Amino acid sequence: MTIAGPSSGPDIASFTTSAPAATTPLTPPPTTRISRTRCYAMTPPVHFTVSYAINPWMDPTVPVDTDRAISQWMHLREIYESLGHSVHVVEPHPGLPDMVYAANGGLSVAGHTIAARFAFPERAPEGDLYAAWFDADGHGPVHRTTGVQEGEGDFLVVGDRILAGTGFRTSRETHHEIAAITGLPVITLELVDPRFYHLDTALGVLDEDTIAYYPPAFSEGSRAMLADLYPGAVIATDADAEMLGLNLVSDGRRVVMTDAAPALAATLRANGFEPIEVDLSELLKGGGGVKCVTLELRDSDKEVDVHTLTEPHVAHNYSPLPVTAATAEGAWVTDVDGRAYLDCLGAYSAVNFGHRNPRIFAAATEQMNRVTLTSRAFRSDRLEPFCAALATLCGKEMVLPMNTGAEAVESAIKVARKWGYDVKGVPDGTATVIVAAGNFHGRTISIVSFSDDPDARNGFGPYTPGFVQVPYGDAQAVADAIDDTTVAVLLEPVQGEAGIICRPPTTCPGSAHSAPTTMSS
User: Fold this and answer.
1) Residue ranges in the chain whose pLDDT is less than 50
2) What angle do CA 128, 193, 185 make, to 5 degrees?
3) Segment holding 172, helix H or strand E
4) What distance lies between CA 322 and its chain's CA centroid?
């Protein structure tokens, strides 16, 4: 089989070796999979029926329940949205019952949108309708090919290459057109079984490096090509392939697929994926499944849009930037789409030394190789040397290490109150701590009790008493607030949550009543 390069010139590679027999699914140790938010186009099956036969699945004599098809389609759309993906709805048109199979409407990749040119006259009008929709929805300019091709039905994007089917619907020559338009390598795969008339019926994309496929659907040369490119592919059984189990949609971790392919679902689960099984039996009567009704939109503007979606299973406590971090090194973070960002946040100073700092990484690894975690119910041979060095650095007598900033602030308040009662002589239960307006020390109940941010505070009462708030950086206000009940002044060196506000050097005045000053980072 062949690889078409970005130009429409001659094939640049040819494979003719025989494929090894593959009948047992490969099951490596479970791998951590990473999901990525997607953007899809779908067309509701309002006019769906089977009134003609252009593939072996279609039988006009078999009744079709359009209402049930709509219900199944709606359930699929709800699943996508519950996973955090966005769905753009394409308006269906009367007389075009197969328009529900939106994946055939075009290809959106590498900043290019290509509308389909259908093989059968029954579906030909869909090409113009999808082209018009792409343009109206902001996915232009829209390319049209000279040759026949049916969009993602026969063009599947796997990482930085496109796998392209031929043999029944899409012409081989069109593969070169797609390569020229997108600038991506296009790998030609020949389909030989009429039941698998589109590539997406015989091959499913799981992530940028992993596919699942059914070898008997392909010619001998194409099987060799796939075995060479994807030696760790998941291989489908006859039974699962015959139910269009490979007509699936994956976000890199969650795999939405038919509920009629249990062996494939089990194999995917063993390989670290999370199958989500759905019933699309009514739409199967037209020869389509999950992928057939789902067209992925990959142009750059839409990619940015979909990353603003919330994480559906993560409890809300921030409104994150539209960046999904995947890896990091030093001061740079790379997102799931390969874009690099200078990390100016540093996890609120927790990674001031940079991501994967080699000295810290080596020290942590060395310690975990010795003892992963020691409870404070025991002594540790490393705790006292660490605290001694930190106490010397800070000019203190002793140190109480804490795991988090909020925990450190809560502990400091406890220590200050204990000092107030035992040393200063403050009457029990009356100790006060002076805090600054605009503070953000954490999300615990005591901390939100002295916050003046309504988003952080409202709805979490009753609040912990004992805090006196003054303007940040106002030394006189601090002095005026100190009295016989004051046990501490709690300040942030820099108010990052309030807008990167630095503390003036005169914030903490000397006084006969002066209390301990606790700095929170």
Assistant:
1) 1-2, 6-29, 300-309, 511-514, 521
2) 60
3) helix 172-182
4) 11
- State CA 355 to chain mean position distance: 20
Whether 198 is catalytic: yes
Widest Cα–Cα separation across the chain: 97
pLDDT at 509: 54
Q: What is the pLDDT of residue 311?
A: 64
> How many angstroms separate the CA atoms of 240 and 201, rounded?
11
Is 292 a residue of the active site?
Answer: yes
Q: Quick one: which H or E segment has residue 488?
A: strand 486-491
133: how many CB neighbours lie within 10 A of its CB? 21
Q: Are 409 and 490 in contact (CB under 8 A)?
A: yes
- Neighbouring-strand partners of residue 436: 470
Per the document, the length of the chain is 521
The alpha carbon torsion through 238, 239, 242, 243 (nearest 10 deg) reads -150
Nearest C-alpha neighbor of 198 from the set 247, 130, 249, 160: 247
Q: Catalytic: which of 292, 307, 355, 508?
A: 292
Q: Which helix (H) or strand (E) is 333 found in, with range? A: strand 332-335
Q: At 244, is the secondary structure helix, strand, or coil?
A: coil
pLDDT value of residue 39: 93
Secondary structure tally for the chain: helices H, strands E: 15, 25
pTM for this predicted structure: 0.58
Beta partners for residue 486, in sequence order: 432
The predicted pLDDT at position 483 comes to: 96
Cβ proximity of 248 and 256 under 8 Å: yes
Q: Which of 85, 143, 176, 198 is catalytic?
A: 198
Query: Where would I find the beta strands (DSSP E) of 102-200?
Result: 106-109, 112-115, 142-144, 155-158, 161-166, 186-190
Instruction: Give the Cα separation of 78 and 218 in Å (integer).
Output: 34
Burial class of residue 389, CB neighbours in 10 A (0-12, 13-18, 19+): exposed
CA distances from 415 to 231, 390, 434, 481, 512 (A): 60, 18, 15, 20, 20
Q: What distances in angstroms separate CA 207 from CA 11, 133, 158, 214, one per listed residue? A: 26, 27, 7, 17
Q: 49-61 burial string, b = 16+ CB within 10 Å, else e? A: bbeeebbebbeee
| Distance in angstroms (rounded) separating the CA atoms of residues 265 and 277 | 8
Element (H, E) at 222: helix 220-229
| Residue 276: strand pairing partners | 256
Q: What is the rounded CA–CA span in Å between residue 316 and residue 312?
A: 9
